[in-house]
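Same chain as my last thread, 172 residues:
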Amino acid sequence: MRETLVLNASFEPLSTVSLRRAVVLVMQDKAVVEQAHPGLRIRAAAVDVPVPQVIRLCRYVRVPFRRQAPWSRRGVLVRDRHRCAYCGRRATTVDHLVPRSHGGRDTWLNTVAACAEDNHRKADRTPEQAGMRLLRKPFEPTPADALVLALGGSGQEALPEWLARPGDRVPA
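reply #2:
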């Protein structure tokens, strides 16, 4: 099922919801469609609504401040766009820069997406010890970045330019 990004009234990313929930929010006038999937519509007897990709709440919702996005293997793969940090090919595993056996932890700055071949070649060493160079430095996404990356990480449909992170924009 499609996921829809929910923005606060201030355009701050809040969460993702199912397509059904997004349509209900729009039909109840609790949200407006900011970005729709091109060419897709939901039709019923008295309803004709574009399929929402991004909706914005009509009223501001106060959210407790979250300092950082929770780490996960899936989150690392999405952050790195399923590309190996060593060679750029499709990544299927997560590699620890400082191996867990050497005290490395599951953190955003200590993990990168890697293809199985490079992960095996690096083995139980740091990239320097293995003579391997990172193509990109790992970074810690904010909770809002994590939501936007999760939606744009599939590569199926581009997010609107006003919502994409500055480094992710594709030149025209």
